[in-house]
Amino acid sequence: MAIDIVFDNRKMATKMLIIVVAIAILITYGHLVGNHKELSIRECLDAPEKYDGTLLVIKKETKIGNIYGDGFEIVQPYDNVTIYVSGDTTGLIKNAYATLTATFHKEGYLELHSIHVHKRRRIKFIASIVAVIVVFANFIRWYKFDIHRKCFVERCQTY
Amino acid sequence: MPDLLTHFSVAYLLRRNAKAPYLRATFYLGAILPDIVTRPVYILYPKAFWAITVLHTPVALTLLCLLISYIFHNSIRKMVFANITLGVYLHLFMDLFQKHITPEYMWFFPLSWKAYEIGLFWPEASLYALPFVIAIVMIMEFIIWIRQRCMN
Which pTM was predicted? Predict the structure, then answer.
């Protein structure tokens, strides 16, 4: 059967190589087209006249910086960006991560449309680490790596 | 994403009574797989967002599950693949109910870049539900323990 060809031991290296190449193609396609579809703040700051009035979706690891009466700063260290955002500051927390939509203005600031602050991100991170440890501990409990056969096998037959 | 402890707890509740514990283990692995292959990379290197976010789509994850199944012995490979994939799809199903400023999960990638979400709760809302989920898990474990004692 066709399904057996996928899962049997014949031409394993070829099958694995095909899958790795397919995933690599998807990643490359995502990287090239995705980056082209979404405008970054850095691109706007580099060509302010061109992108004046453009609506941006800002979600990549963006931190809230200083908070003022009528606005706040957002920081993207990986792009060396710190930019002022004018808008409602209710509920904002300094150094918290946030996603927002805002309009870019050529003067070098953003006008806020909507924002969501990712509260308790650290607790979420810790809870996720706990889950990873539990899942991998459970995995090691039921499987072992057989060096001779170069694959994972059950530690014992359970049924 | 809901936190991985919520993902794991729901997977645990669904598969606790499965007869083969070794398949449960791969189901749990699948339930956390989409986030463990994407989030650490994305947090450490945000510029790779679009490259990495495609690994959180059904097509890429199914290929990844197939690749992972090849490191298991031939006799259990098909079942391991089925369980990891089921776990992955449970994860994606749970993520479907979240909301973001703009939808994030591209269900039909690479055919479409359009993202879909039902949008019932924000990602961090799972933290508020987590104590209840853990309580349900503990109650379930207690009931199983009582039953086993009665049978003995």
Answer: 0.90
